[in-house]
């Protein structure tokens, strides 16, 4: 079962390590600082730790179960292996409290991700990267929805700051956008279930596992960029280090009976960043009835390990110690 995804991951590692390196900084492109975002994966690679990300929302009911209050406790560790290539390991502990029945808890499947930054322009405040994530089937608890098969998701990322706009619209320069698009491909086309009909005969049911287009976008307005590079409007701390943000996280199945039916959330919120860590909190608003009716919340504490202990956390096997990444 693991042969196919393992081959994909190893092929990408070989491709990246065999390519020429580009200079890359932690979440920076020119004067632009891109924060780690909560719902949509960001485009840069870094040595960092998200601990803890907490989210809570009441999910809609379905044919498989009643409406359920879901609380997720997630953590992710990311490590650069070269200046522009990194790997991440993530895990989530889920608490599911249905309207009917007992509360169920357990870990979801572990996720391993690789990311490679192949283009960066300081002048244009632009970052482009490619990656692949591997949802490792069978590493989580099936009662909380962890699948027994793997899912591979090739991804493309981008980040663009608006600092190159003309001075006539200088108050638009603090804006930045980031985004990601990926196709989640299960390694098993369907799950097979055996059930008894009313006459006691065994029937075989096939539950499809469709490919899913995963796409997201963030719109950010950096008050630090406004204050430092556009116009000092006298904002005191902590407001001068805040980034109002809206994240849009969507999923669209491309096969089966739900093909083309998009679900997702729009998350408005605030990120505050300091020298060594950042804090973010956002509302989680469903975009349509299929996505639910109840507004949730997500909050995250995120550490910049490459700036906290650069001699330890920025060591790489092929490039030595990369050093702190923020100026």
The Cα radius of gyration reads: 21 Å
How many strands, what sense, and barrel or not for the largest sheet? Answer: 12 strands, antiparallel, barrel
The structural class is: mainly beta
Q: Provide the residue-averaged pLDDT.
A: 88
The level of helicity is under 10%
- Note the overall shape: globular
Name the beta content range.
Answer: over 45%
- Number-wise, the strands total 19
Strand order, largest beta sheet: 3-4-5-7-8-9-10-13-14-15-16-17
Task: Report how far the terminal alpha carbons are from each other.
Answer: 45 Å
Provide the succession of SSEs: HEEEEEEEEEEEEEHEEEEHHEE
Helices, by number, come to 4
Top keywords for this entry?
4 helices; 50% strand; twelve-stranded antiparallel barrel; 19 strands; 327 residues; globular; disordered N terminus
């Amino acid at each position: 079962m693991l042969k196919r995804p393992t081959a994909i991951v190893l092929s990408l590692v070989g491709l990246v390590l065999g390519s020429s390196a580009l200079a890359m900084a932690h979440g920076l492109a020119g004067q632009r600082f891109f924060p780690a975002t909560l719902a949509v994966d960001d485009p840069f690679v870094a040595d960092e730790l998200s601990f803890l990300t907490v989210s809570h929302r009441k999910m809609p009911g379905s044919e498989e179960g009643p409406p359920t209050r879901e609380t997720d406790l997630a953590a992710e560790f990311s490590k650069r292996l070269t200046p522009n290539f990194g790997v991440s390991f993530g895990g989530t502990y889920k608490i599911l409290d249905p309207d009917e029945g007992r509360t169920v808890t357990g870990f979801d499947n572990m996720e391993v991700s690789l990311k490679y930054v192949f283009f960066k322009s300081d002048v244009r405040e632009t970052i482009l990267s490619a990656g692949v994530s591997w949802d490792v089937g069978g590493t989580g608890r099936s009662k909380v929805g962890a699948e027994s098969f793997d899912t591979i998701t090739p991804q493309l990322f981008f980040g663009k700051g608006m600092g190159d706009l003309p001075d006539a619209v200088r108050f638009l320069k603090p804006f930045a956008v980031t985004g990601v698009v990926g196709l989640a491909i299960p390694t098993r086309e369907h799950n097979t279930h055996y059930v008894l009909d009313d006459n006691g005969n065994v029937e075989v049911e096939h539950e499809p596992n469709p490919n899913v287009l995963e796409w997201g976008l963030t719109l950010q307005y950096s008050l630090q960029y406004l204050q430092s590079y556009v116009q000092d409007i006298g904002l005191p701390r902590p407001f001068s280090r805040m980034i109002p943000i809206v994240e849009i996280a969507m999923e669209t199945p491309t096969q089966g009976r739900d093909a083309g039916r998009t679900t997702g959330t729009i998350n408005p919120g605030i990120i505050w960043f300091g020298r060594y860590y950042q804090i973010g909190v956002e509302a989680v608003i469903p975009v349509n009835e299929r996505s639910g009716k109840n507004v949730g919340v997500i909050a995250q504490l995120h550490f910049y390990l490459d700036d906290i202990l650069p001699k330890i956390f920025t060591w790489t096997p092929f490039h030595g110690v990369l050093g702190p990444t923020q100026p």
